């Protein structure tokens, strides 16, 4: 079966991020942020995927043969593509963004470009604000091992030729220290403006200016930057024994000291300094990656904003919901009808308001929720704590294996336990990735009614302002009853619920999708209209890809909107002639998953937390929920159609922009979505009138 490597496909996605940094249609300082995103993505890629490939490559030959593809070959291809992208990244920064900044009277200087007046100011700033933050370590025979923190920038100092040749000093010395970005309050320093000209300096270069004062005994001081990424893949899913919570705590400690995955170094770094670092850290040539003068471009998230609107995306204030009340009871509104929420276009505050209302409502008896990633100052968890303290039965299914968020999740789990909540951890081999909220309330007639929220996105106020998601508020008993069954399964996996409406992994999502695809295949073979529209972050599972190839050969029209990994190859005459794929990268991260099936004219629309990856279908608790309300189904389809017809930010399978047809108008999906949702309430009012 024809399929791309998962890792090369992911690198194609990061190339699309880099395209945004290169685009003149993106506001200037937003382009810098896309460089930061690209850099941050690549850091994680090395920590997780490259580190994993290196470990797989070290397996015995017979074991490697069972993997289906050679990790050594894939690793070679991956590193070659990373090298190409790094070159393009550097050229984008130097040849596009720095000149564009200069045109706007913003100058990011190096220490060699400072005027005498600026150098004097920088030296004074170094003495007053920076020098006391520095503590270099000498790399000599007294130091047995040098530990470099993961993802931190370090500066190396190569000292040569003492001023006093008779002094008892080494002719050459190497020192290193962590760049004090956090203690300094950021990576960048603004110099005094000169008229309309504005000047910015890396903290690295402030230190370079003052380096001679740090080491007055030496004639020459050379300063370079290095950065280490450590192996972060803990393989927790493979652990099946022992106390999981203690394993997580232990794994967090191991992560900080994990094996090196990549050491980025300045190519201008003296060979003697690089050799000393390798010797003291144990890093080999295999982990060395030539970088540039500066590392950690993710620090450009903190680049000065200059408070000029033209440098940023126009403001899109979160919209009020057309059918949910701004004040008053949300539970009452949900009891009347279903409502769809679309963060970040619409305010995520409706969800936190609902939780606060449930916590305070004396008729609410129980709240159940799944927590995968929560904000550091989580209003969601604070509402749950309040509910628990008021005597309500609060059940929180907390995912301990949410990579890079384990520590935060442990913190909130401990808080909830102490407040009296029932905290549930899934077994080691099963992640809970679904986003579910269920509220039980005693109604006026003494019956208990359930209220549910199903979502594609996390219960996280921070990401809710950056990620596009869909959430369904409903009191429809067909869905709330099955949501309760999913929570029962999370308590006890020995009893698999029989579900009619929800498609739930790991026991029903794969089979349900296969049945829906098979129905389209049968329709196509009968000569009837058959189609599938799929919007996800990733299509990676070989079984699902084979089924989509089968559907294409049968004549089913398949449209894929894939943000990230897309291993399936569209447009091949022998198997995928009816498959078309596009991906969108814009100001918001596309995060929602939507599955649409023609189903013989009775179109089925599912919204889900699950991508079409093996881990989502087989090793996670995921939920795909149907949109049963006809009006809301049309709403989801309208937003999906904007994505299908985007000709501004959409790229095809080969990362080429899909422009408007000749004479056609440009359509940017995210912009069109915001405008459409902004006018939704007005349209509904006119319709009712």
UniProtKB/TrEMBL annotation:
Its EC number is 2.7.4.1. Residues 4-108 form the Polyphosphate kinase N-terminal domain. One of its GO terms (molecular function) is polyphosphate kinase activity. Catalyzes the reversible transfer of the terminal phosphate of ATP to form a long-chain polyphosphate (polyP). The keyword Protease does not apply. It catalyses: [phosphate](n) + ATP = [phosphate](n+1) + ADP. The lineage of its organism: Bacteria, Pseudomonadati, Bacteroidota, Cytophagia, Cytophagales. Residues 330-493, 502-656 form the Polyphosphate kinase C-terminal domain. This is Polyphosphate kinase.
């Amino acid at each position: 079966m024809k399929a791309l490597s998962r890792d090369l496909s992911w690198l194609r996605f990061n190339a699309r991020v880099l395209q945004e940094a290169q685009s003149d249609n993106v506001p200037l300082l937003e382009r810098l942020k896309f460089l930061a995103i690209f850099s941050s993505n690549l850091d994680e890629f090395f920590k997780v995927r490259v580190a994993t490939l290196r470990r797989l490559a070290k397996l015995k030959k017979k074991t490697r043969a069972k993997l289906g593809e050679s990790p050594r070959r894939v690793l070679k291809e991956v590193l070659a593509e990373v090298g190409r992208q790094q070159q393009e990244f550097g050229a984008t920064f130097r040849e596009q963004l720095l000149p564009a900044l200069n045109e706007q009277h913003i100058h990011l200087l190096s220490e060699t470009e400072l005027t005498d007046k600026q150098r004097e100011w920088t030296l004074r700033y170094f003495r007053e604000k920076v020098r006391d933050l520095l503590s270099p370590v000498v790399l000599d025979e007294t130091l047995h091992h040098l530990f470099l923190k993961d993802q931190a920038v370090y500066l190396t100092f190569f000292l040569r030729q003492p001023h006093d040749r008779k002094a008892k000093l080494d002719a050459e010395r190497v020192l290193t220290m962590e760049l004090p970005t956090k203690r300094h309050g950021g990576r960048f320093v603004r110099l005094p403006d000169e008229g309309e000209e504005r000047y910015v300096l890396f903290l690295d270069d402030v230190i370079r200016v003052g380096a001679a004062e740090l080491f007055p005994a030496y004639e020459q001081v050379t300063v370079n930057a290095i950065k280490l990424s450590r192996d972060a893949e803990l393989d927790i899913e493979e652990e099946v024994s022992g106390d999981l919570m203690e394993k997580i705590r232990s794994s967090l400690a191991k992560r900080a000291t994990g094996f090196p995955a990549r050491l980025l170094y300045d190519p201008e770094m003296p060979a003697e300094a690089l050799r000393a670092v390798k010797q003291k850290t144990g890093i080999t040539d295999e982990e060395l990656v030539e970088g540039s003068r500066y590392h950690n471009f993710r620090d450009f998230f903190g680049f000065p904003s200059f408070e000029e609107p033209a440098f940023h995306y126009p403001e899109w204030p979160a919209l009020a919901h057309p059918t949910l009340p701004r004040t008053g009871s949300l539970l009452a509104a949900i009891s009347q009808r279903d409502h769809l929420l679309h963060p970040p276009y619409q305010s995520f505050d409706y969800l936190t308001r609902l939780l606060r209302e449930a916590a305070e409502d004396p008729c609410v008896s129980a709240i159940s929720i799944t927590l995968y990633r929560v904000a550091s100052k989580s209003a969601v968890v604070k509402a749950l704590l309040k509910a628990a303290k008021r005597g309500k039965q609060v059940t929180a299914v907390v995912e301990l294996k949410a990579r890079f968020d384990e520590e935060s999740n442990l913190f909130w789990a401990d808080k909830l336990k102490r407040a009296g909540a029932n905290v549930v951890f899934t077994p080691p081999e099963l992640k809970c990735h679904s986003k579910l909220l269920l509220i039980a309330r005693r109604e006026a007639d003494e019956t208990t009614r359930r209220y549910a929220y199903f979502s594609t996105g996390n219960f996280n106020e921070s990401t809710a302002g950056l990620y596009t998601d869909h959430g369904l508020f409903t009191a429809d008993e067909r869905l709330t009853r099955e949501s309760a069954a999913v929570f029962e399964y999370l308590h006890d996996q020995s009893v698999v619920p029989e579900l009619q409406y929800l498609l739930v992994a790991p026991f029903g999502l794969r089979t349900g999708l296969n049945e829906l695809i098979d129905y389209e295949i049968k329709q196509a073979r009968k000569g009837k209209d058959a189609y599938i529209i799929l919007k996800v972050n990733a299509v990676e599972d070989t079984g699902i890809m084979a089924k989509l190839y089968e559907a294409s050969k049968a004549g089913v029209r398949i449209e894929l909107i894939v943000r990230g990994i897309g291993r399936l190859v569209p447009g091949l005459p022998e198997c995928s002639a009816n498959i078309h794929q596009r991906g969108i990268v814009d100001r918001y991260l596309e995060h929602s998953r939507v599955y649409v099936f023609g189903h013989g004219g009775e179109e089925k629309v599912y919204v889900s937390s699950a991508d079409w990856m093996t881990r989502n279908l087989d090793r996670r608790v995921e939920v795909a929920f149907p949109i049963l309300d006809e009006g809301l189904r049309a709403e989801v389809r309208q937003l999906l159609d904007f994505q299908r017809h985007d000709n501004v930010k959409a790229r095809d399978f080969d990362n080429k922009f899909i422009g408007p047809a000749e004479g056609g108008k440009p359509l940017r999906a995210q912009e069109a979505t915001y405008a459409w949702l902004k006018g939704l309430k007005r349209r509904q009012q006119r319709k009712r009138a």
